[in-house]
Amino acid sequence: EEKESRRFERKYLIIPLKPIGVYILLTGVEIKNLNSFSSINRAIDFEISRQVHLHSQGQGDSIVQETRLWEEGSQKTVSMRKKEGLSDYRYFPEPDLPEVIITKDYVDSIQNSLPELPEMKRRRYESMGLSMQDVLFLANDISVADFFDATIAKGADVKLATNWIMGDIAAYMKNEKVSINEIKLTPQELAELIASIKGGTISGKIGKEILFELIAKGGTVKGLIKEKDLVQIVDPAEIEKLVDVVLSENPKQLEQYRAGKTKLQGYFAGQVMKVSKGKANPALLNKILVEKLNAKS
């Protein structure tokens, strides 16, 4: 009776070895006593670990081409014998496969054509001062990462761009079950929106209202600001008039405030914002409001 025999040909394995950027070529060995595909898999894993460990300890020269025995009980390979040369292992060149010579220029050209890998992208985002939570959110989706990169390329503040994308934009995409490529908002307009808020042209509250329209319908920030007359009121005299109107219309609350119920300041600020349709500059409004509330009657 002829006994069935299988021969599994080893391939060269190139494994990254810490520190990053250092690679090792594992040495081929013949392993006996492999009686299942499962044992083949475990033997290969062990041999990779064994050789990587020896290399990391500076003992790479001790690894030789040899025959090793797989011990199923201990789940490891042990040395059996060493042979004289490659011919003993029946290794021979394949005559139908010509030699392939890869030049450094060719390798460099391929490397330069590769897109930015996720790990490099995460490191770049970390170098911008973003938290790990921010980094993982942005780098997890290539489309989100591209949108973010395009936004900051237009001059947007890194952290503010991150907050808008991770906050209101992400919430909209989740609710509507759409990707960032399917919304109408462009990186250019997000950058413009951030600049308009930061520069004081519009308030953050108005910015949110504009954002949702840009996401759903598209358009431009400047166009919406002009169309809806949303330019922030930054003239102190105009804001002072609005404060005076609100205080005169709420004498009871004013009396309560001056009697010690200072939490009513928020009520007055809300009323002024309501009268101004959200256009009053918040910082200037609060400054003038406090002065008026604390002024002697």
Automatic annotation (TrEMBL):
Enumerate the UniProt keywords alphabetically: ATP-binding, Ligase, Nucleotide-binding, Protein biosynthesis
Q: What is this protein called?
A: Asn/Gln amidotransferase domain-containing protein
Q: Give a short account of what the protein does.
A: Allows the formation of correctly charged Asn-tRNA(Asn) or Gln-tRNA(Gln) through the transamidation of misacylated Asp-tRNA(Asn) or Glu-tRNA(Gln) in organisms which lack either or both of asparaginyl-tRNA or glutaminyl-tRNA synthetases. The reaction takes place in the presence of glutamine and ATP through an activated phospho-Asp-tRNA(Asn) or phospho-Glu-tRNA(Gln).
Domain Asn/Gln amidotransferase per the UniProt entry, residue ranges: 146-293
Which biological process annotations from GO are given for this protein? glutaminyl-tRNAGln biosynthesis via transamidation; translation
Q: How does it assemble?
A: Heterotrimer of A, B and C subunits.
The reaction(s) this protein catalyses: L-aspartyl-tRNA(Asn) + L-glutamine + ATP + H2O = L-asparaginyl-tRNA(Asn) + L-glutamate + ADP + phosphate + 2 H(+); L-glutamyl-tRNA(Gln) + L-glutamine + ATP + H2O = L-glutaminyl-tRNA(Gln) + L-glutamate + ADP + phosphate + H(+)
User: What Pfam family is a match, any one?
Assistant: GatB_N
Which species is listed as the source?
Manihot esculenta (Cassava)
Q: What InterPro entries is this protein classified in? A: Asn/Gln-tRNA_amidoTrfase_suB/E, Asn/Gln-tRNA_Trfase_suB/E_cat, Asn/Gln_amidotransferase, Asn/Gln_tRNA_amidoTrase-B-like, GatB_C_1, GatB_Yqey_C_2, Gln_synth/guanido_kin_cat_dom
Q: Name one GO molecular function term.
A: ATP binding
